[in-house]
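2024-03-11 09:14:02 DEBUG pipeline.ingest accepted 1 chain
2024-03-11 09:14:02 DEBUG pipeline.ingest length=96
2024-03-11 09:14:03 DEBUG pipeline.predict start
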Amino acid sequence: MKNIYDVIKRPLFTEKGMDLKERENKILIEVNPKANKHEIKKATEEIFKVKVERVATINERGKLKRFGRSVGRTSERKKAVITLKKGEKLDLIEGA
């Protein structure tokens, strides 16, 4: 990936993500499926101006959904759980 803004798509505001943020200082974001951990770490540090300790990625397959007689599939996505270093803080909701 050449542009760091192509790596990070959006933050995920779920109950599990908010719990990770409060308890373990981790952030949950959706990333480009082709991005690797090094690119995710670099993009997060440059965009949000925080120090990243560790990056874990999760590939989610699309779920089967039925719409009447037809069957479809939701889009696949990749999530990243970013662990911030001690003393670092990132408020995506409160910072707006």
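2024-03-11 09:14:41 DEBUG pipeline.report The beta strands are 8-11, 26-31, 52-60, 64-67, 70-73, 77-84.
2024-03-11 09:14:41 DEBUG pipeline.predict end
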